[in-house]
Amino acid sequence: MLNTKLKLTLGLAALAAVTALAQTQTAAPTTVTSAVPATATSPAPPPITFDQWAKEVKNLDVPLTWGGDIRIRNEYFNNGLSLTSDPLKPPFPPAVPPNTYPQSPFAPQHSQDYFRYRGRVWASILPTNDVTINLRLAAEPRQFMEPSTMDTYYTHSGMQWRYGIIDTFNAQWKKPLDLPATVTVGRQDIFLGDGFLVGDGTPEDGSFTSFFDSARITVNLENLKTTIDAIGLAQCARPDAWLPTLGPSTSLGGDPESLLLTDQNEKGCILWIANKSLPAANVDGYFMYKNDSRLDSGPPASFGDNADIFTFGGRVSGLVQDHWKYSAEGAYQFGQKQDPELNGQTPAPNPLLAPSAQTKGYRNIDAFAVNSKLTYLFKDKLNDQLSLSFEYITGDDPKTKNDEMFDVLWGRWPQWSEMYNVYGNVQESRVGQIANVIRVGPTWSVDPIKDMNFSLTYNALFAVQDVPTRDLDETLLPALAGGLTTLGPYSGAGDFRGHYLQAVLKYKFNSHVSGHLWSEFLFPGDFYAGNQVENFLRAEIMFTF
C-alpha cells in the first residue's frame, strides 16, 4: 500500500512538473553559420504557451466568460470512519441481549482507498454592465480500490458513476436602482466569516458541491465601513428536487436516501452585519434561523430531523501591532428539535433518564459554542506563522430534559480536519456535525520556497460529555445502568478524545496546476473503547482552465 501511495504521489508530481515546463518552454535559439547571411532566414516564432492558448480560446468577443477545472484526489484512511477495525464484542451483561448490542457497522470496511475525479465547467453571461448570469456544471465519479462504506455502494469496489449536477445557477444585479447593494438570486456558494456556521449547504456529498439555493442581498455602507447581508434559503435534501440531475440521483437502487445533499429539507434566514471601522477590531454580529423538515416520503421514510433553531452570535477579528492576528466567535442557540437519534430514544423507557431525554417529541435546545484563533506573524522571508486555536462546542447531556448539542447549522465542512471533522463524527452524530468537543492546540505554517506552503498542527481533543451525543441506546450507559465496559466504539468512562496530528504540503506549480499532500492521525484517548490509531492520507492534483 505504501509503495502504491509513493508511486501515485511521484506520478502526480511528475505530471504537474511536465505541465509547468511545457507552459514555460521557449524555442531553442537557431544556430546560423557564417556562410549564410543572418537576414537570409526569419527566426522561428516562439511556440504558443498554454496561457496564451487559453486566453485566445476563452476570448469569444462576446459578453461571456467561461472556464473549468479538474480535480483528482486519492484518499486513504484506516479506522477513520469505523473508529476501530475490531467489531467490539465484549461480554454482555444479563440485561442486554447480544443481538441488541451495538457493533461498529463499518468495522469490516475499516480501511478505505478510493479516487475522486471531479470535473466542473462554468460560464458567466453579462447582458448588461450591472447584471451577470452565472452557470456551473459539476460531476464527480469515484473509483473504490477497496470495498466501499458508502450507503449507495456498500461493500462494492470499482467505478461508481454518479450523477452530474448544476451546482451554480444564479443572476446577480449590482447597484440595483443605483443603491449601494448587490442582489444575487439562485443557486450560489456562500461563506460567511470563518465559515464556522455558514460555509457548505450540501454536506452529505463531501466537497463535490457546497451551494445554497437562496436569495442574498448585500448592502455596502462605505461611509460607515459596514456591510449588511440578508439571506433567505431553501435547501432540499434530494439533488433533483429543484433542478434535474444528469443521471439518477434520488432513486438509485430504489433507496430514497441515496446520494442526499443534506440530511433533511432546510429553510432559513440569515442577517449578518460586519463593521470594519477599526483594523484591530473588525466586529460581526448575526442572527440565524433554521427550520429542518424530516424526509418522510417513500420507504424507509426516515432520515433527518424536525427542528426550529434560533442562533445569535458575534465575531471579532483583527490585526494588532502588525504581528498579531486574531479571531474569536461565540454563539448561543435555542429552539426545539425532534431528533430520533437523540440519546434515549428507544421504545422501552429508562427510569434513570430524564423523561424528556427519551421522548420521541420535541426537546428544547440550550446550547452554545466558542471558536477562536490567535496567530503571530513573524514577517520573515519564509512567512513563518504560529497560531493557537481553541474551540468549545457543547454536546447533549442525556440526564437532562433539554438538548444541549450545539448545531453548527451550515458549517458542516472540514473546517480543521478532513478526517475527524467529517468521517470520525459520523457514528456520533452526522457527516461534519461536529459537537461535544473541546479542541486546543498550535499550528505552525511556513513557505519554504516560492509557491509552496507547509503546515503542522497538533490538537488535544476532549469531550464535553463523556458519552457520545447521538446514536446511543440509554440501556448501554454505564454511568447510569452499569455493567457495560464499552458503548460500541466508545468507552463511556472518559472525556479525552485523543491526540490529533496534521501535516499538509501545498504547492502551486503555475497559474493552472496546483496540488497537495495531506496527512492526519488521531491517537485515541479514554473516550474511545479501542486505542487503534486513526489515519487519513490524501494526494491531490488540480488543473484549472
Structure explained in plain terms:
There is one protein chain. With 545 residues, the chain is mainly beta. It has a single domain, classed as Porin (Beta Barrel), CATH 2.40.160. The chain is 6% helix and 40% strand. It is built from two helices and 20 strands. The chain has an 18-stranded antiparallel beta barrel. Strand 16 and strand 17 form a beta hairpin. The radius of gyration is 26 Å and the shape is globular. About 14% of the residues have low confidence.
What topology emerges from the helices and strands here?
Elements: H1 2-24, H2 50-58, E1 64-78, E2 111-125, E3 131-139, E4 142-144, E5 158-160, E6 164-174, E7 181-188, E8 212-221, E9 226-235, E10 265-275, E11 282-293, E12 306-320, E13 324-338, E14 363-377, E15 385-393, E16 437-446, E17 452-462, E18 496-508, E19 513-524, E20 534-544
Antiparallel strand pairs: 1-2, 1-20, 2-3, 2-4, 3-6, 4-5, 6-7, 7-8, 8-9, 9-10, 10-11, 11-12, 12-13, 13-14, 14-15, 15-16, 16-17, 17-18, 18-19, 19-20
